[in-house]
């Protein structure tokens, strides 16, 4: 057989192996300092959420110094009862972060599954699922949560996350569906069907990797938006204060006159800045997602 | 080697979308007959929108047809349940026009070839070790260096190499036929002929038949000079015969227009003396009465505008054609 | 500014301006440093001629076409050279205001895939008026009249086309609209980037004959950039062949096709399947075209695919970038072997 072999003319690129996801992530993160900063911030909060509550006793010791400013003994000052704000911030991170992570996870799992299935199958399943999606989209999340709090006390972060997630997947499902609709017309999806590969294969091996960066970004950004909606709920005071968390801190700070008197400003600012910092970390990290999942962008 | 593919009276219509023609019926194929013998070559040529792409997609099982009979090895697929039909369509593999979108950008060539081979191994009860062996085999068949391409992602390969990977992937299921729809139009000119040559050689080395769909008659000739050429116009075959006959002695004015449109390499060639251009461009408004080409034909008569000609050998031609006034014209460029 | 106030310049007497490109170099910033996509190009477009610029992907032909408008996009940069157009001066040293006026004004440009370069949300007529406004045309009626005249010359109904949106036009029609928009402000130099890609043969033949007609009627100097030697063979008086950012051969089209000198040109022409004769005369070219990063830095850029070099490696092919040798009969070839054997 005399077909010309196309020999590469220059020194070939180092063969890309099936490098593991974490190795890719690390490589992509190192490319820009901002990403490393983002990753560090996010990792810090995750660590706080996991080990935080073990660092301090259940009932924080109270000092006599109420609403004090930052000092050596209380790095972020004290609250209206004289408890250390830094300790509260750390202890309180678990509820907020867990609930947000669960909500984001639920959103992504449900949204991606519904979007992929509807977009790939088209026809009747698509119409049915999209009607449900429209319904979910029209549920006003915040008022619904207000109503739900009358019957449900959201003592566990899991419950909170579940409710937030189950009301929040509509938008993601819609956009995953439209991406799937355009992907399924691409040659490689048609080829996979033509080769007799199964539907689960086509969906998980051909379609999913191509929407992965989008899904990962939604997961990350979802965490921050769900933090805001929780904090909003607590701030409104509709939920009981039976657990320490950032929203409760803000609410109590305002109720105890911090905004009027200015005393204990650090008590108010600490949770706000924590939220901002986490958001910043996520935004810096999101920038890397495209490159992690796209082999073309991953290259140097 | 089995694998005769035959179509009789294939019809396909669409409901048009968009504002101008919304709701109107578009006739993509109006009863097309063809036959591709095992290991043979057939080319379908015509303008964009003539239905040739639809035909290829129907053959590859990517689209359905309204009526007609499509058979593989004499088995009529129209009567089979989808589950029974699928294995037949798997024997006809599509080579897409765009090798950039035909390969999943997130997967390596290794993964792209492993999946269909794993399925194949399972179906035929072959051991796992066969997969890697076969992978190297199909890559060598298409002229690629396995060690070079296997670990790479599609974007790390040139257009020509990508199209070879697409062909290798199609070969993993041991197809009877390859449907190549404009398979080289998106590939660099210096690499095109290599792909065409490969398709031609695969007919001999693996006995696969090639159905070549293109607007470029010269490439069709290169792949299947010994095969059949079908000229499609607005969903109908207007001229059909042995490739060399139709190119050397076209009698339908539409075929003559197509051949006239091929650029003349001035210096190497002189234009044919009877070079022909359609009197009008193709338009949706053109009539369905009489000969479909009448509105654009320089030689149309009243009969052409009212009566629909049928495929036949009128005028004693070797090829079939559907023209009331067949005439030999020298439209092809002559070597200078 | 040439406004559309006067009736069309179709008087048959005028010929287009001459264009002289000398020592043009365009480099792209990449992680591996600044790499030249076009290096040291010397090309003259004779007044009133059609020149075909042929090359594969990565040959630098599109970059070169953009340079004609001084419109090379970041991360590309014109690092040197002169593009002198009669009556306009050096395009590369015009002020930003002057160059904006020249683009779409005296230099008409039809983009690659012009089929898709129209705004899908605006009618063709609206886009025509936008073009007029951006070039300070006062007399809108004359502009529309001129556009309709051009369209009808290309076999389209001006009335209908100006009222149409992009999706209501076929590929060939959009291409003609692109040509109309390039010429409506009385351009003298016309640059067409891949004017027939994605068109079928009949539409291609139609567009090519339109290009020839408007070229003659408007007295233009035209540059057709394409990957397809057939297109050049049909329309161009002269052909220039690019490879790896260099101009490897140029000369009168008929002569170059009949007796190509550079091994690359020869290979390209041999690789075209033909309608007559033995199909096996056509032979593929080995290897693949270089990308920006893989263009050899030293010596001849084509040597890795060159049949002559393969037959007997020569040292100067590896070390010395061949200059454009004048081989007579208005032909230039950048090949050491051709020069030596002459």
TrEMBL record, chain A:
Superkingdom of origin organism: Bacteria
Q: Which residues form the ABC transmembrane type-1 domain?
A: 93-286
Q: What is the name of the protein in this document?
A: Peptide ABC transporter permease
Q: Which residues cross the membrane?
A: 36-56, 95-120, 132-152, 158-176, 215-236, 265-286
Q: How does it sit in the membrane?
A: Multi-pass membrane protein
Q: Which Pfam families match?
A: BPD_transp_1 (PF00528), OppC_N (PF12911)
The compartments listed are:
Cell membrane
Which parts of the chain are coiled coil? none
For this chain, the family text in UniProt reads: Belongs to the binding-protein-dependent transport system permease family.
A Gene Ontology BP annotation from the UniProt entry: transmembrane transport
Got a GO cellular component term for this one?
plasma membrane
Keywords recorded for this protein, A-Z? Cell membrane, Membrane, Transmembrane, Transmembrane helix, Transport
Q: What is its main location?
A: membrane
The record's Gene3D superfamilies line, in alphabetical order, gives: MetI-like
UniProtKB/TrEMBL annotation, chain B:
Give the SMART domains listed for this entry.
Answer: AAA
Please give the Pfam families that the UniProt record associates with this protein: ABC_tran (PF00005), oligo_HPY (PF08352)
Keywords from UniProt, A to Z, are:
ATP-binding, Nucleotide-binding, Transport
By its UniProt entry, which InterPro entries does this protein fall under? AAA+_ATPase, ABC_transporter-like_ATP-bd, ABC_transporter-like_CS, Oligopep_ABC_C, P-loop_NTPase
Q: Do the record's keywords include Heme? A: no
- Return the SUPFAM superfamilies for the record: P-loop containing nucleoside triphosphate hydrolases
* GO MF, one annotated term: ATP hydrolysis activity
| Domain of life the protein comes from | Bacteria
Q: Which Gene3D superfamilies match?
A: P-loop containing nucleotide triphosphate hydrolases (3.40.50.300)
Q: Which residues form the ABC transporter domain?
A: 5-259
The GO annotation for biological process reads: peptide transport
The name on file for this protein is ABC transporter ATP-binding protein
Q: Which gene encodes it?
A: oppF
Automatic annotation (TrEMBL), chain C:
Q: Which Gene3D superfamilies match?
A: P-loop containing nucleotide triphosphate hydrolases
| A GO CC term assigned to this protein in UniProt | plasma membrane
InterPro entries listed in its UniProt record: AAA+_ATPase (IPR003593), ABC_Ni/Peptide_Import (IPR050388), ABC_transporter-like_ATP-bd (IPR003439), Oligopep_ABC_C (IPR013563), P-loop_NTPase (IPR027417)
Gene Ontology MF term list: ATP binding; ATP hydrolysis activity
**What range(s) does the ABC transporter domain occupy?**
19-269
Q: Which Pfam families match?
A: ABC_tran, oligo_HPY
- Where is this protein chiefly located? membrane
Family assignment from sequence similarity: Belongs to the ABC transporter superfamily.
What membrane topology does the annotation report for this chain? Answer: Peripheral membrane protein
What's the name of the protein?
A: ABC transporter ATP-binding protein
Subcellular location(s) per record: Cell membrane
* GO BP terms in the entry: peptide transport
UniProt keyword annotations, A-Z: ATP-binding, Cell membrane, Membrane, Nucleotide-binding, Transport
């Amino acid at each position: 057989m005399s077909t010309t072999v196309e020999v590469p003319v220059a020194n070939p690129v180092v063969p890309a192996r099936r490098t593991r996801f974490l190795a890719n992530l690390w490589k992509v993160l190192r490319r820009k300092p901002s990403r490393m900063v983002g990753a560090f911030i996010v990792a810090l909060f995750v660590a706080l959420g996991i080990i935080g509550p073990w660092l301090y006793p259940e009932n924080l010791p109270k000092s006599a110094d109420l609403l004090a400013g930052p000092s050596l003994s209380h790095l972020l000052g004290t609250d209206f009862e004289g408890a250390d704000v830094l300790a509260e911030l750390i202890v309180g991170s678990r509820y907020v972060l867990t609930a947000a992570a669960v909500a984001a996870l639920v959103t992504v799992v449900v949204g991606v599954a519904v979007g992929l299935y509807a977009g790939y199958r088209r026809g009747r399943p698509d119409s049915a699922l999209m009607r449900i999606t429209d319904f979910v989209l029209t549920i006003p999340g915040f008022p619904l949560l207000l109503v739900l709090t009358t019957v449900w006390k959201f003592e566990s972060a899991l419950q909170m996350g579940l409710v937030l997630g189950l009301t929040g997947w509509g938008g993601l499902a819609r956009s995953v569906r439209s991406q799937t609709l355009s992907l399924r017309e691409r040659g490689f999806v048609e080829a996979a069907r033509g080769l007799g590969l199964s539907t689960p294969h086509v969906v998980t091996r051909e379609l999913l990797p191509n929407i992965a960066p989008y899904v990962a970004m939604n997961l990350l950004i979802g965490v921050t938006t769900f933090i805001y909606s929780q904090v909003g709920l607590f701030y409104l005071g509709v939920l009981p204060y039976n657990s320490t968390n950032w929203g409760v801190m803000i609410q109590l700070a305002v109720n105890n006159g911090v905004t009027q008197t200015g005393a204990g400003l650090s008590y108010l600012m600490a949770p706000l800045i924590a939220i901002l910092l986490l958001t910043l970390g996520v935004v810096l990290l999101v920038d890397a997602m495209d490159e992690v999942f796209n082999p073309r962008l991953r290259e140097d | 080697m089995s694998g005769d593919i035959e179509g009789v009276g294939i019809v396909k219509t669409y409901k048009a979308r968009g504002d101008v023609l919304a709701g109107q019926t578009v006739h993509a194929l109006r009863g097309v007959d063809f036959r591709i013998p095992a290991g043979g070559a057939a080319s379908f040529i015509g303008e964009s929108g003539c239905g040739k792409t639809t035909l290829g997609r129907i053959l590859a099982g990517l689209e359905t047809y309204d009526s007609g009979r499509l058979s593989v090895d004499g088995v009529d697929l129209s009567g089979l349940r989808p589950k029974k039909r699928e294995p037949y369509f798997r024997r006809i593999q599509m080579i897409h026009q765009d090798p950039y979108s035909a390969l999943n950008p997130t997967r390596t060539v290794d993964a792209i070839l492993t999946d269909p081979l794993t399925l194949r191994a399972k179906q035929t009860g072959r051991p796992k070790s066969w997969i890697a062996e076969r992978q190297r085999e199909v890559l060598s068949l298409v002229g690629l260096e396995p060690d070079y391409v296997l670990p790479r992602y599609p974007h790390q390969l040139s257009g020509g190499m990508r199209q070879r990977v697409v062909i290798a992937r199609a070969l993993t299921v041991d197809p009877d036929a390859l449907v190549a729809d404009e398979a080289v139009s998106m590939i660099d000119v210096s690499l095109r002929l290599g792909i065409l040559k490969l398709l031609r050689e695969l007919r001999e080395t693996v006995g696969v038949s090639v159905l070549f769909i293109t607007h470029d008659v010269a490439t069709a000739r290169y792949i299947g000079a010994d095969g059949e050429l079908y000229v499609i116009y607005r969903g109908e075959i207007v001229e059909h015969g042995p490739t060399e006959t139709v190119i050397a002695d076209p009698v339908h004015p539409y075929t003559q227009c197509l051949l006239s449109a091929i650029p003349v390499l001035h210096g190497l060639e002189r234009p044919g003396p009877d070079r022909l251009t359609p009197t009008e461009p193709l338009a949706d408004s053109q009539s369905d009465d009489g000969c479909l080409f009448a509105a654009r034909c320089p030689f149309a008569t009243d009969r052409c505008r009212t009566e629909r000609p049928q495929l036949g050998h009128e005028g004693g031609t070797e090829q079939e054609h559907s023209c009331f006034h067949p005439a030999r014209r020298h439209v092809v460029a002559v070597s200078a | 500014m040439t406004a559309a106030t006067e009736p069309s310049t179709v008087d048959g007497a005028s010929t287009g301006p001459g264009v002289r490109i000398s020592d043009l170099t365009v480099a792209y910033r990449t992680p591996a440093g600044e790499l030249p996509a076009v290096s040291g190009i010397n090309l003259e477009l004779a007044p009133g001629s059609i020149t075909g610029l042929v090359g594969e992907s990565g040959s630098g032909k599109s970059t070169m076409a953009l340079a004609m408008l001084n419109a090379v996009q970041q991360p590309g940069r014109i690092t040197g050279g002169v593009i002198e157009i009669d009556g306009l001066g050096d395009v590369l040293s015009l002020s930003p205001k002057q160059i904006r006026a020249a683009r779409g004004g005296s230099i008409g440009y039809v983009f690659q895939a012009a089929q898709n370069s129209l705004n899908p949300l605006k009618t063709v007529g609206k886009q025509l008026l936008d073009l007029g406004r951006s070039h300070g045309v006062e007399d809108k009626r004359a502009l529309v009249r001129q556009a309709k005249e051009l369209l009808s010359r290309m076999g389209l109904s001006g009335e209908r086309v100006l009222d149409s949106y992009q999706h209501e036009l076929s590929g060939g029609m959009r291409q003609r609209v692109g040509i109309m928009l390039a010429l409506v402000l009385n351009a003298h130099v016309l640059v067409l980037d891949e004017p027939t890609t994605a068109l079928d043969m009949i539409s291609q033949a139609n567009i090519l004959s339109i290009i020839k007609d408007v070229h003659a009627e408007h007295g233009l100097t035209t540059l057709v950039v394409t990957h397809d030697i057939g297109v050049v063979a049909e329309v161009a008086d002269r052909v220039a062949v690019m490879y790896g950012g260099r101009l490897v051969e140029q000369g009168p089209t008929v002569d170059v096709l009949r007796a190509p000198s550079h091994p690359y040109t020869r290979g390209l022409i041999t690789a075209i399947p033909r309608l007559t004769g033995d199909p096996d005369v056509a032979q593929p070219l080995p290897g693949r075209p270089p990308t920006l990063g893989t263009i050899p830095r030293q010596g001849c850029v084509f040597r890795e695919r060159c049949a002559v070099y393969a037959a007997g490696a020569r040292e100067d092919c590896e070390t010395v970038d061949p200059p454009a040798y004048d081989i007579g009969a208005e032909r230039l070839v950048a090949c050491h072997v051709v020069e030596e054997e002459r």
